[in-house]
Amino acid sequence: MTETRKRDREATRAKLLEVARLRFAREGYDGTSVRDIARDSGVDPTLIFRYFGSKKRLFDEATATGEVPADLLDGPPEELVARMLRSVVFQDWSRYGGEHPLVAMLRSSAHEDTRQRIREEVCGTYVRALEELVDGPDKELRAELLSAWLVGIGILRSVVATPALATATSDDVAPYLAAVATSLLGRPMSGG
Amino acid sequence: MTETRKRDREATRAKLLEVARLRFAREGYDGTSVRDIARDSGVDPTLIFRYFGSKKRLFDEATATGEVPADLLDGPPEELVARMLRSVVFQDWSRYGGEHPLVAMLRSSAHEDTRQRIREEVCGTYVRALEELVDGPDKELRAELLSAWLVGIGILRSVVATPALATATSDDVAPYLAAVATSLLGRPMSGG
DNA sequence: CACTCAAGTCACCGTTCGATGACTTGAGGA
DNA sequence: TCCTCAAGTCATCGAACGGTGACTTGAGTG
Fold it and tell me: Going from the N-terminus, what domains does chain B have, and what CATH number goes with each?
């Protein structure tokens, strides 16, 4: 295993993106320098400008959310919230420093661009999907309240590292989640 | 009103702290320079080092959370959660750029110091107070789950600016909050 | 008035930042 | 073999960063 990855544009680009994802997630936009990313990638800093044009564009590409996880919308509706919990909070996000990309991006939320991208994904993916399940008035507000809870759990678990949540498993949380979701959505939800 | 506040150590210190609070909250630690703070304060940048020693110590002092709001722990227990909602989410936090200081500090959570201070306040103030109300097992986990919800609401409302929550009032949210709190704590809670 | 001492200012240090343009190196095809 | 063209490197820019020490200014006191 000689590890001679030299002179391979795509591999170098991919490596830069991988490292950028991790560092931007962990240290935020302002706390990460292009030299940091280049050093961790074993690459010359100026390649970043050749490949991405600017630090900002590297950030945008590195933190671009991929496709919506397909299995989120599949499966029984009464288990949607449980699936969201696993997808948002209890998945292996080690590529993003251990946090869901949305939570990681909050660290760069001093920049309006980033806030807007978070908003679009939260509203377009999570609120929209939950809204359809609401039985009763205030559909949007209820859906946002439930989304807020998922975001809050993700933050307290991985950023603040509150003792009980930091060590809890998906199965520990799911029952409480189901009860709350039932109450908020106005229809029975299951813990998955 | 001649606005000659010159040569007044305490007034200058206070002004620096006020501006620092706002900028650190809005732009985060890494996004704020001592020159920014000095310029907004109408003061020479080096005064910051004379008065506070370093940027870090200015940050610590500016973001130090004051006393726990006394009225949080007073009043009927069944309205505790409603009081917390008003105190955390729906208060006038314009001194901190419009967000609860804890939410604002999340923007600087790349630094472990900051994370630890957030943890101490969340656990020591909110989780602890809620824990005592829990009826049933998993006291700490349930209290953290409810705290997570308050944090999430604060974030979605002021940082992400999700449409329904951004325009909602305390009275719009309180009924849902009461229902969820009742379910999570295992005892009846009121919307305040 | 003259002195004093703290409040406030000035010039500048070394480092790091994002970014640029000219250069060198190396693999594949003729 | 040699030539080409893209991948990668080097030297360097101007600005901004946190921080320091020597200096100036101004209000209160004798």
Answer: 9-62 (1.10.10.60), 70-185 (1.10.357)
